[in-house]
Each structure stands twice: as structure tokens, then as C-alpha cells.
UniProtKB/TrEMBL annotation:
This is SAM-dependent methyltransferase. GO terms for molecular function: S-adenosylmethionine-dependent methyltransferase activity. Residues 48-138 form the Methyltransferase type domain. Keywords: Methyltransferase, Transferase. InterPro entries: Methyltransf_11, Methyltransf_Superfamily, SAM-dependent_MTases_sf.
Length: 272
């Protein structure tokens, strides 16, 4: 069932594949290895990558010798993934509905996708449906409320006094962005052996590129809100953003911003 948040997400990501690949996808690449490890992905694993984006996780699984199927809700993202990972079978599919039979995969992974669905519990149940009994599910999400790299733009907007519009929904996943709640989500959906671990790292950015491929490219809800502002307000936000960036500049001149995520894992219980 599609709700208002799902409709907003389809509009949000339409036409954003290139900008996402050039910017934000590089931040999410850190978690690919831990995600695949948690799902037990190796040679011969039949793996589904949900919300593949530009195909970074799919490419990592192919390098491990897995048989990879990947889906994304946005056709542009799916085309990008198919170009980047020609070894994978790439489809367009919108959670919570997947075009695959029951028990079709040994492993299902999703890198920062569960926070982009309108009904998280229903979505996880669908991911478990396509897993074989004993198959592993692994999902990442951001720690919420956002901080570090994820919050640079929002904190700058807050400093300037930009108000959040009533017509832009907040992710329903907000209540699950902590370890206990994320594990509880998997258990509620029916996963066994549910567990969550924290993933923390520093991401080196070029501040101007990060601004161009994120804030000015309308990648993410914050950027959509910023795009509605007048030029003077945008300039004030950029100045505030610049001040916050400088707080993370190292002695060697690089800007390294912290990132905080969660990795959840579970298994499909036996149907017997």
C-alpha cells in the first residue's frame, strides 16, 4: 500500500541518480563490507540488494562471487546500477512489494533503504518472505535524530531559522533509529536472532562538492526544503554550513565529518 511518505519519496529521488552517485553514495560505501558480512554473502550466495542506488553493494557482492539480484524504486537509480554492475540482474520495484517468489534468496541486504519506506514493518516482512528459511537479512540505517555528516545542512538551516514545511513528511522510521528499536522492528516483522551493532566512521569531504551534490542538487528532504528558499536565505545557509564544516577540518587541511549508523541482522525462521 502506498502512503503519502512513499509518494514523496518517489518525487524526491526522481532524476537524482547522478548527484547521489557523485556525493552521498560515497558516504554510504563504508558500510558495504560489514553489511555483506552480516548477511553471510560469499561465493554462490543468491543475494537480493534492495534499494541498490548506484549499485555499490551489488558490486561488492559480485566481487565475492555471489549471484546478485538488485532492485531500486527509482528507474534512474536502477539504470545506473545496471550500468555499473552488469553482472547483476537489476529490476525496478517499490517496497513493500517485490516481484519474486517465496524463499528465492539466501541473503537479503538493504543499505540505508529501510528509512525510506512508508511502512517499515511491512517492508521487513516482505524482505523475510523472499528469504529461504535460515537465510540472513542485513539492513543499515542512520542513527536518528541525525548527527555529523547527515546533519550538516539541517543544522545550518536551523541556525538561519528555516522552517520545516507542513507538506514535507518526516520519515516514519524516526522512531526506529536507535539500537533497541531497530532490533525490535526486525523481531516485530518476524525475524529470528535479531541484533544491532553501531557503525561509526569519519568521511572525508570536499565541502564545495558536498554542497553541490547534496544541498544544491536536491538530494534529500533537507535539500528540498532549502530549494524553496530565496537566494538571500540560501546564501545565509551556505555561510552557516561553511562555519560548521570548518569545525571538522584537520590540521592537514582535510575535512572529515563523523558518520553514525546502525547495522541490523536477523534470520528467516523455519516455516516447518
Amino acid at each position: 500500500m502506498t502512503n503519502a511518505f512513499d509518494v514523496f519519496e518517489r518525487e524526491l529521488w526522481d532524476g537524482r541518480a547522478d548527484a547521489y552517485e557523485q556525493g552521498f553514495a560515497r558516504l554510504t560505501a563504508y558500510t558495504v563490507g560489514p553489511l555483506l558480512d552480516a548477511a553471510g554473502v560469499g561465493a554462490g550466495t543468491r543475494m537480493l540488494d534492495v534499494g541498490t542506488g548506484p549499485g555499490i553493494v551489488a558490486a561488492g557482492a559480485v566481487r565475492r562471487g555471489a549471484s546478485v539480484t538488485a532492485v531500486d524504486a527509482d528507474p534512474g537509480m536502477a539504470r545506473t546500477a545496471a550500468r555499473n554492475v552488469p553482472e547483476a540482474d537489476v529490476d525496478v520495484a517499490v517496497l513493500p512489494s517485490l516481484p519474486y517468489g517465496d524463499e528465492a534468496f539466501d541473503a537479503v541486504v538493504g543499505n540505508f533503504v529501510i528509512n525510506h519506506v512508508g511502512e517499515p514493518v511491512t517492508a521487513v516482512r516482505e524482505l523475510l518472505r523472499v528469504l529461504r528459511p535460515g537465510g540472513r537479512l542485513a539492513l543499515t540505517c542512520w542513527v536518528l535524530p541525525p548527527s555529523g555528516a547527515l546533519a550538516l545542512l539541517k543544522e545550518a538551516m536551523d541556525e538561519v531559522g528555516v522552517q520545516w514545511p507542513d507538506d514535507i513528511p518526516v520519515t516514519p522510521f524516526m522512531e526506529y533509529g536507535n539500537p533497541d528499536a531497530f532490533a525490535g522492528l526486525l523481531r516485530e516483522a518476524g525475524a529470528g536472532e535479531a541484533g544491532v551493532e553501531a557503525l561509526d566512521w569519519e568521511h572525508v569531504i570536499d565541502p564545495e562538492e558536498w554542497w553541490r551534490t547534496g544541498a544544491m542538487a536536491r538530494v534529500g528532504s533537507n535539500a528540498v526544503v532549502l530549494a524553496r528558499q530565496d537566494e538571500a536565505t540560501i546564501a545565509k545557509v551556505k555561510a552557516a554550513y561553511g562555519r560548521r564544516v570548518e569545525e571538522h577540518r584537520r590540521p592537514d587541511g582535510e575535512v572529515a565529518v563523523p558518520a553514525h549508523a546502525l547495522l541490523a541482522r536477523g534470520v528467516r525462521l523455519s516455516t516447518g
